[in-house]
Amino acid sequence: MERTLDPAAVNRAAEASGLEQIGVRPGLLRYLKDLWTRRSFIQVLAVSKAQAENQNTYLGQVWALLSPLLNALVYVVIFGFILQVGRAGIENTIAFIVVGVFMFRFFERSVMAGAHSINHNLALVRSVKFPRAVLPIAGVLAELASLGPALVVMVLISYLSGFLPIAGRVTIDVYWLLLPAAVALLWIFSTGCAFLVARWVALTPDLDNLLPHIMRVLMYASGVIFSVDRYLGDFSWGWIVEYQPVAVYLYLVRSSILDEPAYPPDLSMWLLGIGWAALFVIAGFLVFWRGEERYGRD
Amino acid sequence: MTDIEEVDFEVDQEDLDAAPVPAGSGTGGLSLLVNDLHVTYRVFGAKKVGHGPGRKQGTIGRLLSRGARQPAVREVKAIRGISFAADHGESIGIIGVNGSGKSTLLRAIAGLIPPASGTVHVASSPALLGVNAVLMKDLTGERNIMIGSLAMGLTKAEVKQRYQEIVDFAEIGDFVNLPMKAYSSGMGARLRFAISASTVPDILMIDEALATGDAGFRAKSKAKMAEIRESAGTVFLVSHSLATIKSMCTRVLWVHEGKLVMDGPPDVVCARYKRFVEQSRKRATA
Q1: Closest CA to A64 of A145, A174, A173, A178
Q2: DSSP string, A60-78
Q3: Which residues pair with B128 in a beta bridge?
Q4: Cα A194 from chain centroid?
Q5: Which end of chain B has fewer CB atoms within 10 angstroms, the N or the C?
Q6: What are B75-86's pLDDT values in tens digits?
Q7: Residues 162-191 in B contacting A (C-alpha not used; CB under 8 Å)
Q8: Is position A6 within any domain?
Q9: For chain A, what is the domain count?
Q10: Where does B13-38+84-285 sit in CATH, by number?
Q11: Cβ of A13 and B150 within 8 Å?
């Protein structure tokens, strides 16, 4: 039994009965409004995800602290003490690497959470209708929730490492108050990146395999474990590496809590950080929204 | 996929004419309008789509044939051009053999799977009620109730208000505080049904929900569905039970291989469908 209706007739009939077409992308304003009404959904989803993260282990949430700690320890030992690349131009290598690793780990995990936000939640996407932007936002928010306690550990280690004879002092000063702002900017930037990769990976799953390698390159290009300025600053393209977003956010966090002479608090870096965050979150959101009607089909 | 011509659906012209006039009648009672709907799935790593075993090949032949001839991505056309209209107050059954595209059709109408082409117009956002509404198995039942209800658009206060009702209805007791992967399949299905049944939408879609749980729960869910059905405007019901369809629906769509075969009153369509199933069974045993 084959029958098709004339699209014009369909539109007329739909209009006459006040019907709305579904399966089409809603307008930007409407989408934002929908998103806003689901804010408690985002919050619950994020908290639940953060809680579920480590529940299959005996130590449970302790791993939220232990994993970044062990991660940092490996880098401190290898790059700080054995290869010594983390020492050039840096006074407190331990604090420098710990801050870098903790913050970069948050960024990396946020991007991966964004990448998997559609594909790993297909069951949810295919059974309930809601603005799909909820998923990448909640994924990054879950990472932020587990970053909270880790941040305390990070600050504590940085401060205590200052008492070691081999390391430069870390003093508590008024700039510490800027730490939440720096983390907030990194969070906004990460959400923007999560939007971008969420769409790309949802439509081309192969990119998921490339992401870890891109992240690895980014890690070495952002001065997570060594000073980019010291190693790459002499190249003519060194400024690209120094002012790319991830390096900027690492700079901001370090300038807030560390006393490194090479990382003084710098207003232009803050402005750059705000600019990158705004650019990525707006562009990312638009890119994600433009694919809205396609998520869940594949 | 190509054997559709061999199947004799025995549709007479008067049956087609008996089908309700789809669109443009301007009655104002229209609640849903589907026109030339196509849904395709992208499937990765599928070598062969269709029925029967693949061509037998030796190892070398298999290695050689790996290439452009068998693309890594195949498209499965689950719905291939379906059009119909539904009025307020209608309850429509959808029947068809396994894999005919019934569930996909429901999901596409509910706006959960974007159509490849064609349009779906609705009076209000439809809700899909089903046991397939998989939530997150790593999370506790309590979390899943929160997430499922919030995703459906309830506010936090409304969820709190209905929470106990959902738990009681699902009969999961203390298990509500355990991760859903610890649930038996029946418990999981009951919880999903209870969550999706907690709201009363204008357009309701039920996907084999009656097959959930033991006899006691089945009776309960049937009562609940009748209650929702009375307050909902338009109801869609996918079921393999012709008795259920006949007792609940005012109209039946028969879907086969992604296409609409018949659209008409339950008695007529069910009788034809039954004959078709018996015939194909006979053909299979012959």
Answers
A1: A145
A2: TTHHHHHHHHHHHHHHIII
A3: B205
A4: 7
A5: C
A6: 889 999 999 998
A7: 179
A8: no
A9: 1
A10: 3.40.50.300
A11: no
